Structure formats: C-alpha cells, structure tokens
Amino acid sequence: MRRIELSPALRWATAAAALLGSTGCGLVFQPRPAPPGPPVFEELVRAAPRPAAATASAELAASPLSLALLLEQALARNAGLEAARRRWLAAQARPAHQGALPDPMVSLKWMIEHVVTRNGPIEQTFMLQQPIPFPGKLVLSARIAEQEALAAWERYMTSGLALIAEVKKAYYELYWVERAIEITGENKRLVEQLLQVAQTKFAAGQVTQQDVLKAQIEQARLANETETLADLRRAVQARLNRALNRPPAAPLGRPAAFEAEPIALALEPLLALALEQRPELREARRAVQAAAQGERLAGLEYVPDLVAGFEYSVIDRVGLMGTTDDGQDAYGFSFMLRLPIWLGKNAARVHEAHQQLRARQLALAQLEHDTRAALADAYYRAQIALRQVQLYRDNIVPQARQALEVSQTAYAAVPARVDFDTVIDNVRRLLGFWLTLERARADVQQWRAELERLVGGVLAERGR
C-alpha cells in the first residue's frame, strides 16, 4: 500500500469547486434592500409643538409638558417599536441567504474490500457535489425575501405611527383631564361662595334652609367629581408612561394650552395621500408582489434541478506488468437531475401559491376600503369637534358665564330676585358647557392624530 498523496487530490478538488461555483454564480442573487427613506414618523416629531424652554434634557415632570419631548422619548425608549425595527433588520438579511446556492457536499470514502481496476485497487474516493437549482429559482426566492424585508420596513413605520398617535391621544386626554380638574375646582369655589350667601340669607330669615342644603349637596357632588377626575388623571398618566416605557406612576407635567388646529386638506386629497403613502397599504402591496413571485416560483417546481459533482479516486500501485497506468489515480465529473415526477404534489404547490396571491389581493382591496371609511370617519369627527370648539368658545360659554353672573347678583339682592335653583342650574350649565368646550378641543387634536396615522404623515399640502 502506497502513501496517499493529497496534493493532486486537493488540486483537482479545488478546480472542481471553482468550476461548480462558476456554473452556479449566475443564479445567485444577494440584494440587501435599503429602506425606502427616513422613518416617516420623524417628520411628525419635528412638526410637534415645542415650548421655547424645552430641550432634550428637560424633565418630563416639568410644566408645560412638551409634546415634542414626549414623542422623542417614546421613539427612543418604546420596546415595541425597537422590536419592530429589529424584525426589519432580521428580514433585511434574508435575501442574501435565500438567493445563495445551497451548500456543497463533500464526502470521503475508504474501501474496506478494495475494488480492483485496470490501474490497481481503489483505496480512497473523494467526492464533491453542488446542488444547482433551475435558473430563476434562486432569483425568485431572493426577490420574495426582498419584498418581505420591505414589508417589514412598512410594519416598522406602522408601529412608529401608531406609537405617535397613541402618545398624542394620551397627551390631549391628559390636557382635557387637567382642564376638567381646573374647571371643576373653579365651580367648587363658585358653589362655596353661593353657600356662604345662602347661609347668610338663611341666618337673616330671607331664605329657607333648603337653599343651604342644595348648595351643600352641589358642593359634595363637585368634590366627588374632583376625586373621579384625579383617578382618571392617574389612569391617563399610566397610559402615557407605558408608551414611554416608564413606571405607571412616573410624574408628568401639565400639557401646554393650545388652540384646536383646523384640517388643512379636504377629504379627497387626504384620501389620495392615504392610498399612496399609508404604511399598511404599502405593506399589503409588498405582500401581493411577494405572492406573485411565489406563484412563479411554484410553477418552476415542475422543472428539474441539477446536481453537479466531481469524484477523485486514489489507486494503489501493485506493480502490474505490461501497463504504464499502474497506480494512476482516477477522476471524473458527474451530473444528476432531480426529477419532479410527482405532479400532484407540484400542482398542489401551484394551487396554494395562487390562492395566497388572490387572498393578498383581496386583503389589499379590503384594506383600501377600510382606509377610506376610517379616514372619512376621523375627518368628519374632527370637523364636528372643531365646530363645537368655535360654537362653545365664541358663544355658549361666554353667554353661560354671563347668565351665571346675572343670577348670582339677582340672588344676592335683598330680596332675592331669582330662586336658588336658578343659580345652581346656571352653575351646572356653565360647568357642562365649559367641559364640553375643552373636550371638543382635545377631540380635534386626537382625531387629527388619528388622521395622521391613517395618512401616514403630517397633514399638509404637497410641496409645503
């Protein structure tokens, strides 16, 4: 038995690997899909109002509470948004390995019972095999992964927009609760003044004790309302802190005063913007494109795949007489085909891929329909709230305050020109109208945030 010389074997194996690699290199598709652009939610943060004194290091517990600072903190600290970004990074790496050739296979075989050839007995055999899918399969697989990576980017955008909408809605809800507490406190002070007037008049025998009791009942009702609002503030605070990945009871300042912003665009331009740039719709379109590529890939299952191989056999010298090939090693190439003869299996794959494509096309159509409906709902609700703001701010609240002042003066007169029920009713009306005004202010901004989420960006004219 002669000593094995590996250098010729390695030389031939290297040549074979290079040959197989060059055979399949034209089929390898390794894109790394870049994001379509910067995150769309960054523009919403820049557009958010920021008090002049607010900086990146400002305390969230300071007043006025900066909405821009809240949004920045939420985008930087929210674990759910970071998870969505990581899922996109993971999906971004998939096209590279989906479009690459399968790993080659190498084997080494020792002969226990030697096979004798014309040149001598075979001692060892080295084999190298490379599966080569039919041209187009790797490209389609990589393109499917690329569309899925771009869809993951759109899901990341969707998560960011949803987070911004959640923070804005909670911020304006916090504003409303703070204003409700303040307005209820002012009404409590009004009732306390009325109670003092009623007690004075009762002591002088000008009114009955019923007026005093009614004032005390109203005082107790407002005190309970104040406690309810305080609990509601804690709930909204916990909701806002959750978006910022902070403890539920972490302190937050009072939101700054604001004026309700009218919607700059009409409904039809908003619909056009939403259909063009809403991330959920873009994701659905990517899913349709991936399914279309998947249907084409399923159709290629009917064609055979190639397995190219190289084999090198080490042959021992035994001193054969009359031959010059004694101990000369043998080598050769092999080619195998994967035969897709089970037509039923491949037909099922094509049917599945076709149904997936139709399902995603229908899902896209439904999402477009839902977007139109949701956008119209949010738009008209914002318009309703805006009209309420204008009506209550300019007419109803000033008139209700004037009516209360007149009834207070009339009740304090001797003798009283109005009864106590009239004054209490005016107090309640002013409280209700004032709360309705602030509720409408918050509603406008909350529906505006919902419109931004549906549209996928800032509500502004194109080119502005």
Fold topology:
Layout (H helix, E strand, L loop, with lengths): L5 H19 L16 H7 L19 H11 L1 H14 L1 H5 L6 E13 L2 E13 L4 H67 L5 H35 L23 H11 L1 H21 L5 E11 L14 E9 L4 H70 L7 H36 L9
Antiparallel strand pairs: 1-2, 2-3, 3-4
Helix pairs in contact: 3-6, 4-6, 6-7, 6-9, 6-11, 8-10, 9-10, 10-11
Q: Could you walk me through the main structural features you see in this protein, from its secondary elements to its overall organization?
A:
With 464 residues, this protein is of the alpha+beta class. 64% of the residues lie in helices and 10% in strands. The chain has helices spanning 6-24, 41-47, 67-77, 79-92, 94-98, 137-203, 209-243, 267-277, 279-299, 343-412, 420-455, and strands spanning 105-117, 120-132, 305-315, 330-338. It has a four-stranded antiparallel beta sheet, with helices on one face. Helix 8 (267-277) runs antiparallel to helix 10, helix 9 (279-299) runs antiparallel to helix 10 and helix 10 packs antiparallel against helix 11. It is elongated, with a radius of gyration of 38 Å. It starts with 5 loop residues before the first helix and ends in a 9-residue tail after the last helix.
